[in-house]
């Protein structure tokens, strides 16, 4: 119990630091966005590279990734159908009920709670999630609002994504046995220096992103009711469809462990991608963007509360 609480305290303190700093100094939103982008483009890929470099690549890796894509696609379909119902009749519904802040909050929470050695339990969902985000989620936003068809730019952006590049590079070097082969090479000291650099970059992720999460937690009273409705609906859909897939599919292709199960649960309670504000912002009204902004904030708060309570329970038993 005490060990679990000790893992939670740094998370709460760092998020509080971010919230207080923004409250006192009114940190410009553009600066926060730039800092988040830098971390996600540089430090996060470094962590993912070393994680996939060292993890045991199993035969179920590919079917697991494909199932993740299928699961999030079903969540999008559920959101699209529910958006026809008058209580959820908004353009935001289909895109609020699928995809997650996998890199911006998911990895940092799991890393803070369980450390680098256990991170592969969560990052194993990465390729499937990123494939869905780039090839389905983002194109569907453009198609939904602007009737814009799929373009080659989507493939180019996917290939150029630092997260995708480092995951694939880590997997390829892992399978090829590169790390073991270079140990006896005269160039090993360079390789070890690169890995140490990546480890140092990885140490930046947890404190900085947790403070960024705290700095972006702001609510507008007028939009809370509509946003809360979306958050409750999202959790209901994510957990229902998520555990339906867990029982019917994932349990048949992956050998579950307590950490894998907790990682899966974490994936399902995460807020929507923060980048949705950027992509949907091209088309939506200021009012709907305010609802989306509040929805992201409330969803983040709910995620943190659930994650902390579940984390204490998980580490206590």
UniProtKB/TrEMBL annotation:
The keyword Nuclease does not apply. It comes from Halolactibacillus halophilus. It is found in: Membrane. GO terms for biological process: transmembrane transport. InterPro entries: Mem_transp_PIN-like (IPR004776). GO terms for cellular component: membrane. The keyword Cell membrane applies. It holds the Pfam family Mem_trans. This is Permease.
